[in-house]
Structures are given as structure tokens and as C-alpha cells.
Amino acid sequence: MRLSVAAKEKTARTSKKKSPVSKGIKQSSVTERRCSIASTVGILSDAWAFLVIREAFFGSKRFEEFRSGLEITRATLTDRLRRLTHEGILREVSYSDTSSRVEYKLTKAGIDLYPTFMALMQFGDRWLESSKSGPLQLIHQGCNCVSKPIVTCSCCERRITAQDVTYIDGPGGGRVAADTPWRSRRTGDDFMRGRPSSVSRSLEVIGDRWSFLIIREAFYGHTRFDQLQAELGIATNILTDRLARLVDRGVFRKQKYQSAPERFEYVLTPMGADLHGPLMMMMAWGDRWRANGRPPMLLHHKLCDENFTPVVACNRCGQPIDAFSMKYRMRYNPDKFGGRKSSRAVPGRV
Ligand SMILES: [Zn+2]
Ligand SMILES: [Zn+2]
Question: How remote is the CA of residue 212 from the centroid of ligand 1, in Å?
Fold first, then answer.
């Protein structure tokens, strides 16, 4: 079933470009913008991969810990652990001299996903949480305060918003053959497995890889159907489906810009615009770990007139945060989800 959906999407994408001269043209003839967001999206838009990384932040290290916390099948877990190790997010460490058993620890690149998770979590707490308090309360150890981290400019340290940022082609810019790593089918409610999580809720609203990329294009000013199609090389039926879903989820508002024939554009709602922070953090991660020192795009902050790197900082003291400087309180019973392993985000550091 899953394969057939993926296969359908692939067929839809390739058939669009098919010409009478070259039948069965390869998928690689479709190009996409070189983009550091896409490399991070490739990992986080796979619900299972995301959930495994999240559980690693909560202290899971061993196969059984991941399995019991997520109720994931052995085959799927084996596959995601292998892929995440291959991607350099996790590393295998032997935990016994007498057996070949390994545990999985986050690498530096894996730990560096933490600010992105924080940005997604804050988005979820702001827009998707009805109780006004998310499942986790964060405490920043730097100032010992309850913290609601924000995405800030590395130069002026002010909070960044979509309208204050412009984009400049970087040394690694241009277009490349389209790649669909992992899988591009919609994963829907899979994100919601296991413990309550505002990061899960955010990812569930954004959806799959295509939806991420459509939202990204909106920040670049591409809001019309044909613009999105040209930029992304996406099949008409998939684009229609994803736009309808994103409108339904409150990320976009459909707005008429022409009457005869009727044409609409897709404008980010205030909630959609607030996805800017998480997407910028995903770009920063991709730039650090996937761009070989050649970022495809540079960010320019209008408020300070400097090129900058987005940073997740404590809203109370303004210091940049990382996985080692945050503690959390759970507002749910962790025993239901594989137990309490640590009150810090990264395993093995307590
Ligand atoms: Zn600035
Ligand atoms: Zn602080």
C-alpha cells in the first residue's frame, strides 16, 4: 500500500516531463533549488526517523528502549536506526565487552538538531496547544528561569520574523537534480505516536516533505500555483492536495488575485508565517552539516543590515541555548512512554 502511493507520486512527477522523443524519462531530470532546508526536511519529515531522534533526546539508547517507547515494529526500527546512523545523526557504541550489543547515541550533528526541535516545539505550544501550557516546561540553566526559546539574529540578537529577512544567493546556490530521500508520501498521524509532544504536533500540521517545501517557497515569495509548480517540479495532483491540506490546517489562506479566469494565491496566515523560525533553524542545520561550507543561501536581517545565522535563544536572558543548557519538567506521566530516563535533553550527560 505504502509503496503504491510512493510509486504513484513518482509516476506523476516523471510523466509530467515526458516528451514524445524520450519516453520514460528519469526522475533526475526534474530539478529543485539547492537548499539546506531540504536536507533537514529529508530527515525530519519521516515520522519514524523524527520519533527515534526525539526519543534519543529523552534518553533512549538501546533498541528495546526505542521499541517500547514508540511501539514501533522491529523491522521499521532497525531500518530507521540504520539510516540515521548512515546519515550521521546517531552513532553505534558497544555497551558490553562480552557481547556485540550496541546502543545508539546522538552524534554532534544529531545533538545540533536540538535548537530546531526547540523552535518547532515553541511553534506547537503557541498555536496548537489548547491548554496554554505545552507538555514540557523548559528551564534554562544559564538563568535558572522557565524559558520559551525564540529564534534570534546572530548579529543583533533581536528576534527574527519573516518580514525582516531577505534571501541572497550563497556560494552553494543553483539547482540540482531532484532527490526524494526517505519517502515523500504523507505520514499523517504517525507523528503523534508515543509521548505528548508539541514538536510532533507541529510536524503533523506541516506534514510531509512536499508541504515543507511549499511553505518554504511561500517565504521566498512564491504564492501562486504555477510558481510553486515551476519551482518545485511537483505534480499537479500532489500540489493541489498539499495546498488544500495546508489551507485546512490554517497555514495558508486562499486569496483571489484574478477573476476571469478565477485564480488564487496562497498567503501565509499569521500561524503559517510563524513557521519561519523553525524553517530558518532547519536551514542553519543543513548549512552546518550538509553544505560543505558553501551555503546555498545567505540570510540578511533588515533590522541590523547584516547577514546572519539564526540562533535559538532563551527569551529571558537572551543566551543561545543548546541541548546541554536546558532541563525540562514533564506535564505527563513519562512511565507510559518508556519511563523517565533523564530530566535533561541529552542522554548520558547527567
Ligand atoms: Zn540582526
Ligand atoms: Zn535564560
Answer: 25
